[in-house]
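Quick question, first post here. What does this chain look like in 3D?
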Amino acid sequence: MATVQNLLDACMVRYQDPDKTDWGDTELLAYCQDAVEYIHQLLINRNDISVTKSGTITTADGTGTYALADNEMSDFVAMYRGAKERESGVWIDDNFLFPVRQTESVHYDSDNKGKPLYYYLTSTHIGFLPVPDDEYTVSLLYFPKQDALLLDSTMPFNDVFNVAIKKFIDSMASARAEQDISSITQFYNELERQALGVTSARTPIKPRMVNRRR
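> Answer (accepted):
Ran it through. Tokens below.
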């Protein structure tokens, strides 16, 4: 798979500026990071399983909340929502747990312990309801933060979106050189259009795009 440096060197602006006088690696890397983060968020919004990570939490009798960071999920952004209506990204054995608001915890106390049926999220913790009455292994499928890219990083998404990302980099670099920011929204829309075109070919779900106002 291509590295970030490979991708930058394959951009049209690099052919136009092989000595990196007008567009250095640092500038192009920033555009690449913007494009990757944009696509990553787009895939999260689409509940695309391709950008998920898995984790586990082992519960303890009488403990209802668990820090995500303490369970190697400090990169947590959002929970996978399941591929079907009665599925979720949290399960024990073959039983899915479903999301509720944290306020639902007031209906459960130490006298209402049991095998968890629901979960809720705070900014740093996940809670289970009823409060666990035993040790259970809870499996999670979640969306992580997008890592910061370095020049020697492998391009994310298995190179699937490299063409769209290169075009975005070229467009942003050219606009900067011309001091023209009027088309930036159009560049993001085009990046989204191309990315959704790729995802629609990989999944039967019809993508939906909402044009942004200029």
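Helices lie at 4-9, 12-16, 25-45, 162-177, 184-202.
The chain has a mean pLDDT of 92.
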